[in-house]
Design a protein that fits this description.
The chain contains 13 helices and twelve strands. The strands form two sheets. An eight-stranded mixed sheet has the order 5-6-8-7-9-12-10-11, with helices on both faces. Helix 7 crosses helix 13 and helix 10 packs antiparallel against helix 13. It starts with a helix and ends with a helix. The structure holds zinc ion.
Length: 348
């Protein structure tokens, strides 16, 4: 019996093998920065330059562009490899079940809406939240998404907790009642199930958040079925706004990412006012993606805004992709007020 349990534990730990990602500080004087940003993940802009994440297998390639870069961490995903640290996080199977349970518990307010299958046949689904959830009403449509990068586990936990708060609080909380009575919210807890089940940022080796079209480049993409499906879904519902939750960095950002040019002035002012207000309590950095971090082509917010001028945000939560489970409630709190403010923008 004991031997069997050990084999089982071993299998679990194999299953949790995550990628090794190293972090580097690249000096702002580096003349190859634009190439680094094209090929690697620039996490944040700081006083002396940029924090960049690099997959261990690609460190040699990175080193050619940044020989002087200082390594800050030899493995930022240590928590992903620690069963204890992961104990408080939900698996994809559990997430699917919880969506069903929410639908059964709140039949008037929550409904599971499938919108496709992933590359390996995993289900893609949203949970629609609204009063009279069975019908499409003349209300603003908002999409909230998490786990576009499958290793950013905290994003799914936060979005799930916010979803539960809205539903549980509907009868007693006037604020939530107003939000659900006046908007149709579609929650997508796992955008990239392949990445999520493997605890990987990627889908089939491709960064999903670099595969959306951007102005002038409608086709420069490698197809990722999960991303194709969510783009189709976005167009079909014709969303008025979206938040794509990522981790980490404590930032609330809006288009453009692909260029340092600003979007048109009237829109910029709306985004700027809203994100300034959203960041009031949690003190997140805010502004256009390209200016808060660095130019990044192919991110979701550029596509959503470019498609129909939707109020598309990208949020980088907290300071880690997978904080210890005991820290989850704190991150939920950090994300709550700004999310309610965002939703209230559509329900006034
Ligand atoms: Zn991300």
């Amino acid at each position: 019996m004991k031997a069997l349990a050990l084999v089982f534990l071993f299998l679990i730990s194999l299953n949790l093998q995550a990628e090794t990602i190293q972090s580097f500080q690249v000096l702002k004087e580096n003349s190859q920065m634009h190439l680094i940003a094209e090929r690697f993940e620039v996490k944040e802009r700081n006083k002396t330059g940029f924090l960049v994440y690099v997959l261990k297998e690609r460190v040699a390639e990175f080193r050619k562009l940044a020989p002087q870069a200082k390594m800050l961490s030899s493995d930022i995903n240590l928590n992903l490899k620690n069963k204890m640290a992961l104990a408080g996080y939900h698996s994809f199977e559990q997430i699917k079940k919880m969506a069903k349970v929410l639908e059964m518990t709140y039949p008037k307010l929550a409904k599971v809406v499938p919108y496709g299958t992933s590359r390996k046949g995993l289900p893609l689904f949203a949970i629609k939240l609204s009063d009279n959830v069975e019908v499409i009403e003349d209300e603003k449509k908002v999409m909230l998404t998490s786990a576009t990068h499958g290793d950013e586990l905290i994003t799914t936990e936060v979005l799930l907790a916010l979803t539960e708060s809205l539903l549980k609080g509907y009868d007693s909380n006037q604020r939530f009642k107003k939000i659900l009575n006046n908007t149709e919210i579609y929650i997508i807890l796992v955008v990239n199930p392949e990445g999520f089940t493997r605890r990987s940022r990627y889908s089939g080796g491709i960064d999903p958040n670099r595969q959306y079209p951007w102005p002038g480049h409608p086709n420069r993409r490698t197809p990722v079925p999960a991303i194709d499906s969510i783009m189709k879904f976005y167009k079909k519902i014709d969303f008025d706004g979206s938040i794509d939750f990522h981790a980490s960095g404590k930032m609330v950002m809006f288009p453009w990412g692909y260029t340092r040019d600003l979007i048109q002035t009237a829109d910029h002012q709306v985004f700027d006012r809203l994100t300034t207000d959203m960041a009031k309590e949690n003190r997140y950095k805010h502004g256009p993606i390209s200016r808060v971090i660095y130019v990044a082509k192919g991110s979701s917010a550029d596509f959503y805004y470019g498609h129909n001028s939707g109020l598309a945000l990208g949020i980088e939560l907290t300071t880690s992709k997978v904080p210890r489970a005991s820290r989850i409630p704190g991150v939920v709190k950090e994300a709550s007020e700004m999310t309610w403010k965002y939703l209230e923008h559509f329900s006034r």
